[in-house]
Each structure stands twice: as structure tokens, then as C-alpha cells.
Amino acid sequence: MLFAILLYLGILALSGFGVLWGIGSILMGFDRYEEEHAIRTTPLSELDSVAAGPTAVQGRIEPADRHIGTLYDCEACVAYELKIEDTGGDSSRTHVNKSEAVPFDIVTDEGSVRVCNAEFDFHVSEDRRWSEKRKSHTSPDDQLARFERDWQIPDLRAGDDRRYEMAYIEPGDTVYTYGTAELDNSLSGEQSKPLVLTGRDGLFFVSDQDPDELLRERRFVLAKNGLLGIAVAVISLAVFLWLTGIAQIFLGA
Amino acid sequence: MTLYVYIVGGFCVLLTVWLIGSYFRRAHDNLVEARESCDAAWGNVEVLLQRRHDQVGNLIEIADEYMSMEQNVLAGMVEARESAIDASTPAEAAMAQVDVRESVREFYSIAEETPELRTDEKFDDVRDALETIEQRLENRREYYNDTVRRYNALLQQIPERYLAAHRGYKPRDSFEADEAAKGEFSVRDRLQN
């Protein structure tokens, strides 16, 4: 009986979540569509020909001042996204959900442009991703145990699973970056035409992938995400209305 | 049909209309943005073209001072500069650029034979400035042409093609003289006519 109630509540919650997920999927499709358009229509800039405005730059990363430090797989990150989450039964606990970046320069043959804030999206390849899942009955290796201590992660509860996900970029990586170039007079002592990339016009992302690869990944993404999102949202709504009894009581089903 | 079916079906229709409507709106906005990018890239080229007009003007002053015997070269530069200033489209500007470059090259070759001119500091400064401008102009020209190529490709896509037709957007000219024009050009021939 208890199992049936839990199952009922679980499906109900899932169907409610499904409506939101479907709408989120459509919005995600639009984000990727905008990125695809930006990559397709914005040529790579030669830095001495860049003026203020939407700009795509491809170059090597060099930290402007310092790097973040060792972070598990990454020995000298300049930017990362990290999430550590425990799941078990029908609950989940998020211990870390953080992104951080230090100022870094994207250096090309013609000059460099600075990225100062962490407000960009990551689209990194598998080489720059780390993910791991650990069950409560397994012990972390030394490196992972040290990592958990550094981040003050509590012990894993019996029966729970812990998932680690990290994306990062480090000095020396060749990255494709799209953002809005602005003149930054605070850097005027360092170079003749100090440029900084920001997310002022909305789109701001960094990727260690080639633009062609990014385009391939985004091909028909709006159609795919849109159709999937509509299907999931509509079916979830139908299930939600039915299971809550709204359909039978108020809607004449 | 029960109200339940209408509600679920209506939700499906609503999402579909929202998806399609947003897609067209964004496609339209992106088209306008791509067109503005072409304008911005051309604006960056024009800034350098203007600077080059100024430097060529300085060069003409120097030529006038030292090379009274070579009036035809001077006239060639003046004419090329004027046609460059008058150019109103990228295609015209590209043609004029060939004229300017060739007339300046002609001037340089004659300047090599004029010892007083070679030692003139002002001439050196103008020549260095022109070289720098030419290099930067080349980068900006490539960037502009790439922007235009991408914009013109966008105009071939659906639904952008129909949106562009509706707004009267036409493909843009790239900033390059055709090869025939480059090949046929000769300052000396022109000046002798």
C-alpha cells in the first residue's frame, strides 16, 4: 500500500516536472540555435581589426595574473564548473554547485583579448570534462579523498550514490570564444588597444572545440529539442491532469 | 470530445505556435543583426580608407614639392585619390583602391630616383603610415568580405530568404575588385592617353 502511494506520488511529481522539463528543452533549443547563428555568421576576428561589438576569437589561453590551482584532474585551471551531488531513495543533496574563473587572456598572433568575468557558458570537449560516480560501499581513492577534504564534503550516507561532474579549461588550451568586445581603459598600460570580452549583448561562451564541431553539434538542435520538448510537456500534462483527478472531476474525461 | 482533450490539445498547439513564432522572430532578428554586422564591418573599413585618403593627400603635397618634372604621376595620384573619395559602394571602393595602390607604387618607384625625397623625414613618415594602414586595411577587408559572404549565405536559407525578400534586403557586395580590372590597370598607360 505504502509502495503504491509512493509510486503514485512519484509519477505525479515526475509528470509535473515533465511539463517544466519540456518547456526547458524548448528554451535550451533556442539557446543552442542562437549560438549556432552566432558561430555561423560571425567570422573569426583578427585582433587588430576588432572593434566593439559581437566578436568571435580563437586563441590560446594564458592566465592574466594567477590560476585557480589544482582541482582534481586540472592542475592549473583558469575556469571551472563543479557539481557534487548525492542521490539516494527519492532525495538528493547538492554539496557543491559552483563555477569560478580568474581573468585570462586569449592570445592570437595579432594580439590578445581579456576575459574578466565568469559569466560565460562552457562548451568543452570530453578531454576537459571529468565525471565520476561513487557508491557508498566503495572508498574513494587518495586523490578523490583529498579532493573531498579540500571541499569539505561530508561522508556519503549508506545506500546513497555520489556524482562528481566538472568542466574546466586551463592555460595553453586553444579556445573558441564568442562574446562582446569592449575597450577596457583599465588595461591601457598593457597594450595599445585593450580589449575585454563580456556578455553584454547576451551570448557569451567559451569552448575548446573547433567552430565546425560546435556547428555540427547544433545542427537541427532547435527542431530536435523543440519536438522533444513539446512531446514531453504535452504527455506530462495529460498524465498530471489524469492522475490528480482534475481531468475526471473538472474536465469531463 | 471532452474539455480534457481540448486542454491537452490546446496546450500542444500553444507550445507549437510559440515555438514557430519565436523561431521566426529570432530568425528575423538574427537577419537584421547579420546585416548590421556587415554595416559595422564596412564602417571599420571606411575609417581606414579615410585615413589612407589623408595620407595620400600628404604624399601628393610632398610630390608637388619635389617632383615638378613628374606632373603626370602627380595627376595620377590626385585622380586616384578623388575617385577613392567619391566611391560610394564597396565595389567602387575596391576599384578605386587598385588605382590608389598602383599610383602610389608608381610614385614610390620614381621617388627612388629622387635623392632629396629619399632623405625627407616627412616622406618616410607618410610611407610608414601608409604601409601600416595598408596592412590593417587588408585584415579589415578580409573580415568584411567574410562577414558579407556569411550574410549572403544566410539570405539563401529558409526562412531567412523570405524574411529578407519581405524587408527588401539584397545580397551585399564584397570589397574586392574583379581580377580583370586588376589585370587591365596600368597607370603609365592611362597617363599617356
TrEMBL record, chain A:
Annotated transmembrane regions: 6-30, 226-251
Keyword entries, A-Z: Membrane, Transmembrane, Transmembrane helix
Designated name of the protein: RING-type E3 ubiquitin transferase
Organism: Haloarcula japonica (strain ATCC 49778 / DSM 6131 / JCM 7785 / NBRC 101032 / NCIMB 13157 / TR-1)
TrEMBL record, chain B:
Family annotation (InterPro entries): LemA-like_dom_sf, MamQ_LemA
Keyword Heme found: no
Signal peptide positions on this chain: none
Annotated keywords: Membrane, Transmembrane, Transmembrane helix
Membrane topology: Single-pass membrane protein
Transmembrane segments: 6-24
Compartment list: Membrane
Protein name, as recorded: LemA protein
